[in-house]
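Note to self: keep these together.
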Amino acid sequence: MEMMLERSAVATAEGKLNGRAAQRRETRQRVYAAAIAEFKRSGLAAADVGVITREAGVARGTFYFHFPTKEHVLAELERLEEARLASQLSKFLAAPHEFAGALAEVVRLMTVMERRVGKALFGEMLGLHFSPRRPETLPGADQWSEYPVMTLVVQAVELARARGEVYPGADSLRTAQFFLLGLYAMLITSHEQPKAERTEILDNFLVTVLRGVELR
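Structure:
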């Protein structure tokens, strides 16, 4: 009987802990959603934490409990969006493809992400890596393997090199870094361009990258 009571007490305690954990996750999600909505309305710098907490229905301290700064919210957005993009890219790379097609798919997925997030917030999300307020939650430049999209592009270069699509001396990491950092810059600096001109800019960039690693 005593053992049964102990087990019941343990189960009750575990249930309470699980309930509180679920409540914290739900609160964090509400704060996150309210913050992203405010960022889209006002931009990161002008976003008002007071507005965010009011929309989320929480105290101001609750925001900082879950996100030490507004930049931490933006870093969370990037993590989620990159995971989505990496999943889609991984499926593409698993099917037969050419190297040029793989890079073109990355460009396409990035522009889809930009439309989903919004051009202004997309630019701020990418620019966060070069900001002095960059959160410690974002891996450093030397931790490229922590970025799933970078890892997939590196693998795509290595596979293309093995198939003889790029020259044997092409460095997979350097090629992937040049491509992705260049793509981020092209997307940020051309987002005000008319659609046709922007498409041409991105196409020319892609051709430049491919020429840099073509067989010699």
